Amino acid sequence: MTKEKAQARRDHLAQMRAQQTRKERRTAFLMWGVGGAVILLLVGVVGFYIVNERSASSLDAVKSFKYVGSEHTSGPVTYKETPPVGGPHAPPPEWQNCGIYDKPIGNENAVHSLEHGAVWITYRPDLPKAQVEELRSLVRKQRDYMLLSPYPGIPSPIVASSWGNQLSGITDAGDPRLAKFIAKFKNGPGTPELGAACSGGKGEPLS
């Protein structure tokens, strides 16, 4: 083999190796690029899920109102909120006995129970039976200081209220914010008569 042919062969091999190296680099860059895109996509999906979960269970939508306790009246009261969350209410011992009701209860009596630390879950009378039963199950698990009753004309299918606090906009009995609201506001620090009775008053609950 002449020197010229040998050199040509070496040049050809070097060229082939260079092409192979460039191809491998392109493949590596492509793989890293795709991998990076997949990682970014996964991070975005997980982040979106976490944000959505936090938003779905956040109590940021709770509205708070200032009311003093121990204002008793024997007459009907026109309340600013629907359902009411505080203000004048029925005198002792006319608080509403805590429990589950299948008919509307008196505002003035329920507000007195809120003053004692109860949480009042209200729902529209046309709420599906399965949803109502889910609410009843939630209230039964809480055992005490809970009121559940239908309430015509409320601003959303389900509304949770305590003394001075209200969460509306609930459309499903399984909304995780209900349990969070109860945990935060039942016998909460803003209760005017914390520990006062929620039985021995008015009404005969189903359970």
Number of helices: 4
Percent of residues in beta strands: 5-15%
Mean pLDDT: 88
- CATH classification, class level of the largest domain: Alpha Beta
Outline, from the CA principal axes?
rod-shaped
Distance between the termini: 105 Å
Beta-strand segment tally: 6
Main sheet record: 6 strands, mixed
Provide the number of structural domains. Answer: 2
CATH architecture group name of the largest domain: 3-Layer(aba) Sandwich
Radius of gyration: 32 Å
Spans of at least 5 consecutive residues whose pLDDT stays below 50 are 47-55
Task: Characterise this structure.
The structure is a single chain. This protein is α/β, with parallel strands linked by helices. It is built from 4 helices and 6 strands. The chain has helices at 3-57, 107-115, 129-142, 176-185; strands at residues 63-64, 99-100, 119-123, 146-150, 158-162, 165-170. It is rod-shaped and about 120 Å long.
Give the arrangement of secondary structure elements.
Layout: H1 3-57, E1 63-64, E2 99-100, H2 107-115, E3 119-123, H3 129-142, E4 146-150, E5 158-162, E6 165-170, H4 176-185
Descriptive terms for the model:
207 residues; alpha/beta; Glutaredoxin; 2 domains; 6-stranded mixed beta sheet; 4 helices
